[in-house]
Amino acid sequence: MHSSISLYDSYLCKETRAKKQQQLVKKFKTPVITIKAHMPKELRKNGYVAEIIEQAFQSVKQTLSQQGFIIVASDDHKGFAGEERYLAVQCRSASELKKFMMEIENSHSLGQLMDLNVMDGEGKTISRGSCKMSARKCIICNCPAPECAKRHQHNLEELNARIEQIIEESMVTA
Ligand SMILES: [Zn+2]
């Protein structure tokens, strides 16, 4: 049996996520950050997810407070394969918020394993492209991730080893 693997699959019920995101947007009319782990859904039960989400959350909170942005509400969704968090944020602009989130993804020692999605106050996702940022790079081959994902180049074992390596390195530098 062969199952296809993608780093970029969503691991929780998409409808549940969309519902929670849209509820926040509708109620607060602010941009919404979604914090997820950036790893294959097959590997998300490995216990790293909670740590990645928590570190991402702490980093996001710190950045927001430095910018004077305010979390007006939050929600989360816990499934058997991990957790996601949603934050409604009062800020100057959604694209500016997206840039700060990409800075965390690029600079945090676990940033390669974080997925910090931003929606604007109308519920539209802000893409990297619209902020003139290049696509994420694959954590193994450094190719643009969407291209690599399409080709399904890496097996789970390889990905798991690389994820463990990133986490170990992060503990050394912490
Ligand atoms: Zn790759």
Automatic annotation (TrEMBL):
Q: Which InterPro entries match?
A: CitX
Q: Name one GO molecular function term.
A: holo-citrate lyase synthase activity
Q: Source organism's superkingdom?
A: Bacteria
Reactions this protein catalyses: apo-[citrate lyase ACP] + 2'-(5''-triphospho-alpha-D-ribosyl)-3'-dephospho-CoA = holo-[citrate lyase ACP] + diphosphate
Report the EC number(s), separated by commas if there are several: 2.7.7.61
> Which key words tag this protein in UniProt?
Lyase, Nucleotidyltransferase, Transferase
In Swiss-Prot or TrEMBL terms, this protein is called: citrate lyase holo-[acyl-carrier protein] synthase
Q: Which organism's genome codes for this protein? A: Vibrio algarum
Its gene is citX
